[in-house]
Amino acid sequence: MRTRVKICGLTRRADVDAAVAAGVDAIGFVFHPPSPRAVSAQDARDLCAGLPPFVTAVGLFVDASPEQIRATLDQVPLELLQFHGDEAPELCASFGRRWIKAVRMRPDIDLAAQLKRYEQAAGLLLDTFDPARPGGTGQRFDWDRIPAAIAPSIVLAGGLDADNVAEAIRRVRPFGVDVSGGVEASKGIKDHDKIRDFMQRVNDVDISR
């Protein structure tokens, strides 16, 4: 089974097209205004227009109100929701969409407890902990902290780029990887060569061994 790829923080049509052409599985839109990669609902709707079959549109929220999330869903054809704050599982499950929960890898995090708490999620996304930012840190965490038993069900994020993603996949063997800053020219502006290089490195990994 190949490793799935989501590219997050897309803000431009050219970048969406480049990601699709490179073979990405999912496209992520950030609905968190403080982020330099944030987009409006109108912009995200326009960027979703014309997405081909089997490319999933993902909406990322950080402690947004239910009203804000529903207003976004009324405008944007999102297929998967990604919750990146301190959202309760009941909130995450209340929008009639499949969802994943981001877990920031604090030093004292109990992944077994998080898996149990968010058992209705399609999966957990493991990201680097930064007390000042909910995500997009550009820093990796210690992959050895991920128990082998749960690795096939998680999405790995945090500081991934073309130089380290192959090693990450070989060591962790996650279901998928999530990249944003690692394929950028500047925040919110993707580098198309970096996208292609990242996808090539993922596809070159032989995970059957």
CATH topology, anyone?
TIM Barrel
Name the CATH superfamily classification.
Aldolase class I
Instruction: Let me know the largest β-sheet.
Output: 8 strands, parallel, barrel
- The assigned CATH architecture is Alpha-Beta Barrel
- One letter per element, helices H and strands E, the order comes to EHEHEHEHEHEEHEEEH
Structural class: alpha/beta
**How much of the residues is beta strand, in percent?**
15-25%
Describe the structure in your own words.
With 209 residues, this protein is an alpha/beta fold. It has one domain: TIM Barrel (Alpha-Beta Barrel), CATH 3.20.20.70. 29% of the residues lie in helices and 21% in strands. The strands form 2 sheets. The chain has an 8-stranded parallel barrel with strand order 1-2-3-4-5-6-7-8. Strands 9-10 form a two-stranded antiparallel sheet. Strand 7, helix 6 and strand 8 form a beta-alpha-beta unit. Helix 1 packs parallel to helix 7. Pathway: Amino-acid biosynthesis; L-tryptophan biosynthesis; L-tryptophan from chorismate: step 3/5. Belongs to the TrpF family.
Q: Any key phrases for this structure?
A:
209 residues; alpha/beta; TIM Barrel; eight-stranded parallel β-barrel; two-stranded antiparallel sheet; 7 helices; globular; Aldolase_TIM; N-(5'-phosphoribosyl)anthranilate isomerase; TrpF_fam; tryptophan biosynthesis
